[in-house]
Amino acid sequence: MGIFRSYGLRLQRKRWRIRAIRKRRELKRVAIRTGQIRSDDLLLFCTQRNEGIRLPYFLEYYRKMGVGHFFFVDNDSDDGSLDYLADQPDVSVWSTKASYKRARFGVDWLNWLQMKFAHGHWVLTVDPDEFLVFPFCDTRPLRALTDWLDASSIKSFSAMLLDMYPKGRLDEQPYQSGQNPIDIACWFDSGNYTISRNHSFGNLWIQGGPRSRVFFPDDPAKAPALNKVPLVKWDKRYAYVSSTHMLLPRGLNQVYDEWGGEKASGVLLHAKFLDTFGEKAREELERSQHYAGSVEYKAYAERIKEDPQLWCKWSERYINWRQLEILGLMSKGNWA
User: Fold this and answer.
1) Which positions ≥6 away from 179 have C-beta within 8 Å?
2) How confident is the model over 100-118, as a mean pLDDT?
3) How far apart are CA 291 and CA 301, in angstroms?
4) Fewest C-beta in 10 Å: which of 117, 132, 294, 326?
């Protein structure tokens, strides 16, 4: 990378950090328990709106994984989820009625909180419908992974977003609060993924899966990105650029081996497609707070009216992380 391009990225990172500092004024403190955070705690950051039905299992899942403290930004929920989060002993929560879109889809809010509270911690940034699976996660806690990353001088860990869905209609089996959503949405596409490299930020760009196959069959380039860097040893100088797809400094995005080998990586099981999806898609389409004029949610709404199912004869039923490694969707690299 040339010196001018490198300088341009440093200026861009400074811009995002300044923007996050300004956006802090949009956040209202609701329940702040940051004083109980220990120096070695794993932290999780999340934005949410009306995800009350998902939150009990989400918190249980990541508590068992070893997360020590949760940071939530609630974006004007009216389903009781803000009060629920405020009552949790290991959660700090802020609320805002400001525009999700004008906060770069929540990135500015989380960049500020990470800048203020996450320096020196391993940080996991996920949505309420994303569940991290990593090598040996059935026998080892997240701390084992971050200890190995520290020992290997690795500061970031990638995870492909894997869309999960049920067999049959999405609205056929109601989801119950506290239930593991993967018990219902237990199928996924094992192939039809494309990978390209973003030369500006150094990250890989992954698209495909059921959202490309079903919602964007005629224009797969419009399908959502599936590449994520959700786990980072945070420094107050860092900043996410676009969701968790990429961040700055640029080197944090180089989570793959350029010389023919494989670096350890994980998968985020994405449990978006439950019986709640139709109503959620209509709500988000009406709010128009998502990327590119909510083109993604327009495609959801139109397609779901025609045929509310994603399963096909090539769908694969989820078993465990080893299955995902065999299929080439994640790797344990040299972690053994």
Assistant:
1) 57
2) 96
3) 15
4) 326
CA-nearest of 83, 54, 85 to 69 is: 85
pLDDT at 292 over 90: no
The confidence score (pLDDT) of residue 303 equals: 74
The continuous run of DSSP H or E covering 158 comes out as strand 156-163
| pLDDT, greater one: 181 or 301 | 181
C-alpha–C-alpha distance, residues 242 and 12, integer Å? 12
pLDDT value, residue 288 = 60
Angle, CA 269 vertex, CA 153 and CA 324 arms, to 5°: 75
Total-model pTM? 0.94
Nearest of 214, 205, 240, 1 to residue 106 by alpha carbon: 240
Cβ neighbours of 324 (radius 10 Å): 25
List the end-to-end C-alpha distance of the chain, in Å, as a whole number: 34
Distance CA 206, CA 159 (A): 11
